[in-house]
# Entry
Amino acid sequence: MLLKPIAIDSMQASALDRRLDTELARLRAADLYRVRRVVEGAHGVRMRVDGRDCLNFCSNDYLGLASDPRVAQAARRALSDNGTGSGASALISGYNREHRQLEEALAEFTGYPRVLLFTSGWAANCGVLRGLLGREDTLIADELNHASLIDGGRLSGARYLRVRHRDVAGFRDALSGSRDSGLGTRDSGGRDPGTAGSMRLVVTDGVFSMDGDLAPLTELSELSREHGAALMVDDAHGFGVLGPSGRGSVELFPSPESRVPSPGRPDIYVATMGKSLGASGAFVAGSESLIEYLIQRARSFVFSTAPPPAIAAAALEALRIVRAEPERRARLRANIARFVRGAAQLGIRVGPPDAADVSADVAIHPIVIGDAARTMAVSRALLERGLWVAGIRPPTVPVGTSRLRITLCATHEASHIDALLDALQACGLAGASLAA
# Structure
């Protein structure tokens, strides 16, 4: 039997469309309108985008594992054994052997007692912050944290203190000011009432995704211990890339080789599997108590269908490659050095606004142009030359700091980087004064 379509009041629909069309027109006029580009085939440094062959300089696939045949083969084996979906949340029937194996491998690799998988970095950050914090708690956060940390903090209902970017003194003042704020027993917003004491949580990205600079993790760790606060680090863009072993920002702390997290390491460590591991999803690493609590109370974990087992199998194989092939990180560092050196020779200012230097390890290298329209014009001109470089505009970055976000991968060749530098020069960026 055919079902009749549900009638929608035309006046209500047109009123909605009028409202939305007005906002869409405003975005177009301000050069803030976003479009999707269609990719054909595998994701790598050479791609076909909207029917055009190009070199990709905007991917987060830092180690080139998204199209590695060994990772794909691991996923195919799991697909053959388990099918395409997990069928339910992990707490119902969706927790496969592959999920457990990946959690155990990630825990061993990061040196934390336990790991919990989430469907995405967004789900992980929102799940942790909404699960741990309530109205009587205080969140102290870098102002340029990823949007998922901002939204998770707002959803938690906690007192939200924003600190200027990488401002250690600002974090110290916020911690000192919140110590005597009179916060008492918290209303936990769905958790067991009467939980004693309020929590103060310092939250930062490890690598800031649009600026490519590093958080002052050693100082934040010391401040957190000194003031009795917990420290959470989102290391989405550092995991697999930073450190001698690819353990990310964790390796910037004392005793990175220790099996048990040293006193200076984050209490909560979050990273994704869709960047350096070339797969999908995210994980939270921490103590036995933290992970057990999140299993009970992180809503984005409890109420989400578990990731497909094939994705977990792919990430597990990618993690094996990260451990077995340190030369990938060496090639990435060499590519970073070639680009930074070449840009400097051309007089192209690379890096975040007001940065004193450019990291030799981080794969993200913005060229801040300032004006959104000019940024997108340069991005389009580069694509016409066969180079895909994303233009980033507000609200992703502050007004007046629109930029080209260039990301380098281990699988880029020297000729690719030289072609990018030549194209940037041809587009008028060499020796130019960009952002006002």
